[in-house]
Amino acid sequence: MKPLLELKDISTFIGPFHILQGVSLEVSPGEAVVILGRNGAGKTTTLRSIAGLQPPSGGAITLDGINLMGMPPYKAVKQGIGYVPEDYGIFDLLTVEENLLIAMWKDDKETLARKEKVLDLFPALKESYKRPAATLSGGQRQMLSIGRALVNENKVILIDEPSKGLAPIIVEKVRDALLKLKDETTIILVEQNFDMACSVGDRFYIINEGRTVLNGPIQELYDDEELQRKYLGVVTA
Amino acid sequence: MNILAMLLINGLAEGALIFLMAAGLSIILGLLGVVNFTHGTLFIWGGYVSIWVFSLFGNFFIALAAAIIAGFLMGLVFERLFVRQVYGNVTAQILITLGLMTIFTDMVRLLWGPNPIPADRPEFMDGTWIAGGVIISQYRVFLIVVGILVAIGINYLINRTRIGMIMRAGTQSPDMVQAMGINIKVYFSGVFAGGAALAALGGALYVPLVGSVWSGMGIHNQILAFIVVILGGMGSFYGSAVGSIIIGLTVALVSWFYPPLTVYSTVLLLILVLSLKPEGLFGTAVRS
């Protein structure tokens, strides 16, 4: 199958630091791909490079055959990328409603229907619809961040560490939401929580020191404790 | 009592003029994070352009419109050619905007000469009203009305429109606004140019009040505007509105009761407020 999203040997600098030194990956339509790696490996930078927020200096990125290299972020995401950043990226000065509205590229019937669907998926957002986003809890902020990525007809959703800093009970809710989401769209998930990564992902890529070093079906990684120890520092009892 | 009523009107009129400068300055600082020293120059240009256009057409409102357009276009050029290159670099912003201020202030001397040019108030607003023994200048009332209308307009823009929503979001995270598929640079240009247009409008309205236009009139008003922005809380539109009224009233009262203290009174007030509330009246305590 022709990949929906393809990264070929991308290279990204942040200031003088060469963060990505050869990241390659392919994502097919409908897949949930998990990017794993130790802290500072370059996982977040990979997502930001795809979204155009950290433009790569070399390599190639194509989404559905469209070359994203050199495209400013506002144009790159409009090719069909929903981005859910690590810190949620919620606008505190806006209400929940405004946070959803600002993400909508159109105000046609389909987009409005998607917004209603987001509110059905996350009832907590409906309850706090007119409230300032600054008053939301961590879990609600995560839901809003994911919801924003769903109001447009995106081809792929990039989600960065959705479980980070959340209470276990909230992590369960986020996991449920991602499992529902997985049935409807293509996902690239960066996740440190190994259990969550394995329950959501179909395939994995491991990034180590700015390079993709390994990929395969998630079950392979789940079954291979040696690999987990080597690249992820996962210690099993 | 009559004097106090008159001083109140004078102070509010002064506050309205300062507000036109401070509002743009504050929004530019809040959204773009730019310390902008070109505002005083744009104020001067607004004054000169309005006088020039008034001499051509004899219509006060055409003169005001011309000043607004000139300010907007100058702001657009400043942002696109100079300020855009130095976002995030405060030192460079100060140097570049100070440089632009010097060049464009000298340019008015080159174009219109070094001497002050007299300016009359529009005839239909040149009179006074007397109410309860209080003499009320029609032009000062007009300034207060303009200030209120501009404040209502900006408030509506910020809180009731998609543009305002994007501006508020951009204040927090321009990067995330881009990730929403919005070209924030267009809004940056628009905000800078809009702020410049307000400063030019302020200059055009100031000239008939004081009766002449001269190339040095920008710096005094720019300093007052900076005081207002800091007093009200950097980047806060409401802060700049309230701060303008406070400074306007302070200037009016002190200049009446003890004129030698006028210049210092605003600075002393600023020191007093900052010592009690370092972030300013409506500022947030911590900003990255």
Describe the structure.
- The complex is a heterodimer of chains A (237) and B (288).
- With 237 residues, chain A is of the alpha/beta class.
- Chain A is built from 10 helices and 10 strands.
- In chain A, the strands form 2 sheets. Chain A has a 6-stranded mixed beta sheet, with helices on both faces.
- Chain A is globular and about 45 Å long.
- The termini of chain A are far apart.
- By secondary structure, chain B is mainly alpha-helical.
- Chain B has one domain (2-216).
- Chain B contains 11 helices and 4 strands; from the N terminus they run ααααβββααααβααα.
- Chain B has helices spanning 2-32, 39-57, 60-81, 90-112, 138-160, 162-172, 174-179, 184-210, 217-232, 237-257, 262-276; strands spanning 117-118, 128-131, 134-137, 212-213.
- In chain B, strand 2 and strand 3 (134-137) form a beta hairpin.
- The longest helix of chain B has 31 residues, at 2-32.
Note the topology.
The complex is a heterodimer of chains A (237) and B (288).
Chain A: E1 5-14, E2 17-27, E3 32-36, H1 43-50, E4 58-63, E5 66-67, H2 73-77, E6 81-84, H3 96-103, H4 109-121, H5 123-127, H6 138-150, E7 156-160, H7 168-182, E8 186-190, H8 194-200, E9 203-208, E10 211-217, H9 218-223, H10 225-232
Parallel strand pairs in A: 3-8, 3-9, 6-7, 7-8
Antiparallel strand pairs in A: 1-2, 1-4, 4-5, 9-10
Chain B: H1 2-32, H2 39-57, H3 60-81, H4 90-112, E1 117-118, E2 128-131, E3 134-137, H5 138-160, H6 162-172, H7 174-179, H8 184-210, E4 212-213, H9 217-232, H10 237-257, H11 262-276
Antiparallel strand pairs in B: 1-4, 2-3
